[in-house]
């Protein structure tokens, strides 16, 4: 594994969290009717500005309350396969403007095995940030940016339960994702730490899980 020390001392649970979208970007195009009267120009501008303000900032598929599902998978991280289990219980709330809140009070630890060694990670605090989404062809992705109010941290533990280095705060990341009614998944496009490796699945409290395929690890 490349840079195992860094991987062990700084691991973050595919947060946030974070996590969005379905059929495309929900940014609406704004426009006004043409006119030859200079006096009408301010009215057109005002209408356009109002439309831009009320347009959805993220795909509506991602808006709502989502809870992480326990992992049970093998995923690549730092050029090797790592087994992941646990991690259920984090609750993500996403609003129509892309605001994200992550509640960690019921989150379970993630346990992962790498090269025959067992490690774990826990999260604490409350995550706050924003999400933006984009679609290129059939590929959908989102960018997460933590805000100044974010207090969510990831704590990495060795097999003896001793913490490996200082807690790691939330940082910006990009992820590929899928979204369907009741379920979405994401996978970080750049994996720098062991805990970043798995595909993260979340379900809606009121939705029904669909059969939408998970994003392919890149």
Give your account of this protein's structure.
With 218 residues, this protein is mainly beta. It contains two helices and 14 strands, in the order H-H-E-E-E-E-E-E-E-E-E-E-E-E-E-E. The chain folds into two domains: 167 residues, no CATH class; 28 residues, no CATH class. The strands form two sheets. An eight-stranded antiparallel β-barrel has the order 1-4-5-8-9-12-13-14. Strand 8 and strand 9 form a beta hairpin.
Q: Name the helix and strand elements from N-terminus to C-terminus, one letter apiece.
A: HHEEEEEEEEEEEEEE
User: Could you say which overall geometry the principal axes of the C-alpha atoms support?
Assistant: globular
Tell me, rounded to a whole number, the average pLDDT: 75
Biggest sheet features:
8 strands, antiparallel, barrel
Radius of gyration: 20 Å
Give the strand tally.
14
Backbone structural class: mainly beta
Question: CA-to-CA gap between the ends?
Answer: 17 Å
Give the low-pLDDT segments.
1-55, 207-213
Strand content: 35-45%
Helix content: under 10%
Please tally the helical runs, counting DSSP H or I stretches of 4 or more residues: 2
Number of domains: 2
Task: Please list the strands of the largest sheet in the order they lie side by side.
Answer: 1-4-5-8-9-12-13-14
Q: Which key phrases capture this entry?
A:
39% strand, 6-stranded antiparallel beta sheet, 2 domains, mainly beta, disordered N terminus, 8-stranded antiparallel barrel, 218 residues, 2 helices
Write the layout of secondary structure elements.
Elements lengths: L3 H6 L31 H14 L9 E5 L2 E7 L2 E7 L4 E4 L4 E5 L6 E5 L2 E8 L1 E11 L2 E8 L6 E5 L10 E2 L3 E8 L2 E6 L11 E5 L14
Antiparallel strand pairs: 1-4, 1-14, 2-3, 3-6, 4-5, 5-8, 6-7, 7-10, 8-9, 9-12, 10-11, 12-13, 13-14
């Amino acid at each position: 594994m490349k840079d195992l020390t860094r991987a062990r001392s700084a691991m973050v649970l595919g947060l946030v969290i974070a996590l969005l979208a379905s059929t495309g970007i929900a940014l609406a195009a704004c426009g006004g009717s043409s006119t030859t009267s200079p006096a009408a120009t301010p009215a057109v501008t005002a209408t356009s500005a109002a439309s831009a303000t009320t347009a959805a900032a993220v795909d509506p598929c991602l808006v709502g309350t989502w809870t992480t599902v326990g992992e049970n998978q093998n995923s690549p991280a730092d050029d090797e396969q790592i087994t992941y289990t646990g991690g259920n219980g984090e609750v993500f709330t996403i609003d129509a403007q892309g605001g994200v809140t992550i509640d960690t009070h019921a989150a379970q630890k993630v346990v992962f095995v790498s090269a025959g060694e067992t490690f774990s990670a826990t999260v604490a605090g409350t995550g706050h940030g924003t999400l933006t989404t984009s679609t290129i062809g059939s590929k959908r992705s989102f960018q997460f940016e933590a805000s100044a109010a974010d207090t969510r941290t990831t704590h990495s533990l060795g097999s003896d339960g001793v913490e490996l280095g200082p807690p790691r705060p939330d940082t910006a990341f990009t992820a590929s994702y899928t979204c369907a009614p009741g379920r979405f998944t994401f996978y970080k496009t750049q994996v720098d730490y062991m805990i970043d490796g798995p595909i993260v699945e979340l379900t809606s409290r009121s939705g029904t899980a669909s059969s939408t395929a998970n994003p392919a690890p890149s």
